[in-house]
Structures are given as structure tokens and as C-alpha cells.
Automatic annotation (TrEMBL):
InterPro entries: AAA+_ATPase, ABC_Ni/Peptide_Import, ABC_transporter-like_ATP-bd, ABC_transporter-like_CS, Oligopep_ABC_C, P-loop_NTPase. It is found in: Cell membrane. Keywords: ATP-binding, Cell membrane, Membrane, Nucleotide-binding, Transport. This is Peptide ABC transporter ATP-binding protein. It is a peripheral membrane protein. Pfam families: ABC_tran, oligo_HPY. One of its GO terms (cellular component) is plasma membrane. It comes from the Bacteria. Belongs to the ABC transporter superfamily. GO terms for molecular function: ATP binding; ATP hydrolysis activity.
Length: 358
């Protein structure tokens, strides 16, 4: 688990029109084997100054959602329906030229792998300065000055000298910082970070997450943080969205979702990760089975083939009736509040012979 300082800054009051609003988003890819429903009716809002965490296994639709927001999805063979509005502007129907202007300027992305995101042929400084020149019309000299300033801001020592280094001359942590500098050089109002610290050791990971929060405090940007690490989520985000099979299955303020999770899939995610209070010999409990094929998702609740609580709901309801996610805090599950409390209490009860809880 990553140790980052908890943010005590009070969240801004929600406005009537959310800064980023995603409504009933569907993303489908046509492949030789059929139509893949990568995102299946997703809705969420994000305000300026807030951080939304999105968690879920591989293939749950997290990254596809973010690529759709940025307009970076493969356009051929992709069908997008629903709406994505950023500061009141509809993005799903915006022409590529308009999206290109917004990317880097109003919205930017930090990718997981800095080696592939940075070109080996250009200096780090040039790769930070170029988008700044493009979006602001700054001179080469001013853009270079800005690149040095950004490298300094993200904690690269001797920034004035290192600005002329090539990416291979940087360590992994420094490259990731350089990529963050590149993403932030135009002060984007929306920052999407897709597993930004996965490849880094825990110390650098904590520094980078602190850096993102510091920059957010300075600029008031909205951040979407995609991760599989619930430790990172607990210390970094304000709100949490849990995704499964292209759908949101639970959402709410992060403390509420992690403190009293309401969906069996969230219970499974929490049970499959180590915790500081676990006994060292306490085994992790993986979620049985595998995520469903998005070519032929199961009817009813998409989690039912892996869920241990189908019988408690009773009848065929889980297999035939799709549970909807209620507005605000909630979980897309047919279990009653009483059944959830009982199931959660059973999971948290100490096991015989073990001091820890799960
Ligand atoms: Fe499990 Fe049924 Fe709830 Fe789906 S709706 S998570 S199958 S109990």
C-alpha cells in the first residue's frame, strides 16, 4: 500500500453543470468475431479540483472510457453513443481538429509506460516545449524556459542541464516525471492518469502521487486516476467508481466505498489485496473465475457467474434481471441492504486461528 499524506483540503461545492459529465456512454468495437461492448451505459460526473478513481480488472472498460473522453480511440470500427461534455462542450460529436486543440491544452493524459509515450529521438526538453509552443504560440526561447520550469516543478534536479537529455538518460521515475511535465505544461483543466505509477517502486510512486495532488491544489484541475491499486485509491482520490464488464457497479465517496462496500465485486477486489492489518500468513482470496467475454456478456447481472450471493437473492433474478446503479452513492446489485450488511459482517468476522480480518 502506498503511503501518501491524506488531503485535508475541503472539496469545492458542486456546480449545477459538472465540469466533466459522461452520460450513458457506450463504446462498441466491431471485430472479426463480433461486436465487443467495451463500455456499456456508463455515467459519471467530475468537478474541478476533485479526483475520481476508477478501479476494476483488465478489460473492465476503464482505459477505453478515458480514450473516448480524449477522442484517442481507434475511430475505424468504433461506435460511440451517449454524451461526454467537458465544460459544457460535447466531445463525442466534436471534429478531430477541435479535439486536437483541447488535448494538451484543456485536457491531457499521463500514460502508464513513459518509455513508449516519450520519443527516444528528441530531447526531453523539446518534447515538453513543443506542445507548449503549439498551443500558446510561444517563441522557442520561452518554450524552452517553460520546459525547464516544468522539469523543476516535477522535481527533476538540475533541470536547466537535464532539459537537453534524451529519455534514455533518465531513470524510470524521472521519465515518468518528465511525462507528467509534458502533460501539465499547458495547465490542463482535466488530467487523466492511466496507471501512472504501476511501473515504479513504492517510494517514487508516493512522490508522484503527492506531486499530482500538489499540482491539483495549485491549478484546481480535475483528475481521473485509473488504477488497480486500492491502496493508491484510498490515499489519493475523492470519489471512486468500480467498473466491471464495461459498467459501473459501485460508486461513491472513496471513504464510504472502501469503508462499507456494497457490491460483491468490490468485496472481492478488497479481499484480493494485502492490507497492513493482515497476518503475514493470511492468504489473499482471489475472485473466482474470470471476467466475462465482452463479445457475449452474460444476461442479468454480469457478475453472476462469479458471485457467491446469487442464492441469497433467490430465484433466477441475478441470471435474468440486470441490476441498475442508483443515482449518487450506491451499488448495482439485487441484494437488500440487510443481506449486504449480513454478508459484509461475515466477511469481516475474524477467522478461527487468525487475528486479522478481511
Ligand atoms: Fe451477485 Fe446478484 Fe448482486 Fe450480481 S446482483 S452482484 S449476481 S448478488
Amino acid at each position: 500500500m502506498t503511503a501518501t499524506s491524506p488531503d485535508t483540503t475541503p472539496p469545492p461545492a458542486p456546480s449545477a453543470t459538472p465540469f466533466l459529465s459522461v452520460r450513458d456512454l457506450h463504446v462498441r468495437f466491431t471485430t472479426e468475431d463480433g461486436v465487443v461492448k467495451a463500455v456499456d451505459g456508463l455515467s459519471f460526473d467530475l468537478e474541478r479540483g476533485r479526483t475520481l478513481g476508477i478501479v476494476g480488472e483488465s478489460g473492465s472498460g476503464k482505459s477505453v472510457t478515458n480514450l473516448a473522453v480524449l477522442g484517442l480511440h481507434e475511430r475505424r470500427g468504433t461506435e460511440i453513443t451517449g454524451t461526454i461534455t467537458l465544460d459544457g462542450r460535447e466531445l463525442t460529436t466534436a471534429p478531430e481538429s477541435a479535439l486536437e486543440k483541447l488535448r494538451g491544452n484543456k485536457m491531457a493524459m499521463i500514460f502508464q509506460d513513459s518509455l513508449t509515450a516519450l520519443s527516444p529521438y528528441y530531447t526531453v526538453g523539446r518534447q515538453i516545449a513543443e506542445p507548449y509552443r503549439k498551443h500558446t504560440g510561444a517563441s522557442r526561447r520561452d518554450a524552452r524556459r517553460r520546459a525547464v520550469e516544468m522539469l523543476d516543478k516535477v522535481g527533476i534536479p538540475n533541470a536547466a542541464r537535464r532539459v537537453d537529455d534524451y529519455p534514455h538518460q533518465f531513470s524510470g521515475g524521472m521519465r515518468q516525471r518528465a511525462m507528467i511535465a509534458m502533460a501539465l505544461v499547458c495547465d490542463p483543466e482535466l488530467l487523466i492518469a492511466d496507471e501512472p505509477t504501476t511501473a515504479l517502486d513504492v517510494t517514487v510512486q508516493a512522490q508522484i502521487l503527492d506531486l499530482l495532488k500538489d499540482l491539483q491544489r495549485q491549478t484546481g484541475s480535475a483528475i481521473v486516476l485509473v488504477t488497480h491499486d486500492l491502496g493508491v485509491v484510498a490515499h489519493t482520490v475523492d470519489d471512486l467508481l468500480v467498473m466491471y464488464a464495461g459498467r459501473a457497479v459501485e460508486r461513491g465517496p472513496v471513504r464510504e466505498v472502501l469503508g462499507a462496500p456494497g457490491h460483491p465485486y468490490t468485496w472481492g477486489l478488497l479481499g484480493s489485496m494485502p492490507r497492513l492489518t493482515s497476518d503475514v500468513d493470511e492468504p489473499l482470496v482471489p475472485i473466482p473465475g474470470a471476467p466475462p467475454s465482452l463479445l457475449t456478456p452474460p444476461p442479468g447481472c454480469p457478475f453472476h457467474p462469479r458471485c457467491a450471493h446469487v442464492a441469497e437473492v433467490g430465484g433466477d433474478r441475478c441470471r435474468t434481471e440486470r441490476p441498475e446503479l442508483p443515482a449518487g452513492r450506491g451499488a448495482a446489485c439485487h441484494l437488500t441492504p440487510g443481506q449486504r450488511r449480513t454478508a459484509l459482517a461475515a466477511r469481516l468476522a475474524p477467522r478461527p486461528g487468525r487475528g486479522g480480518t478481511r
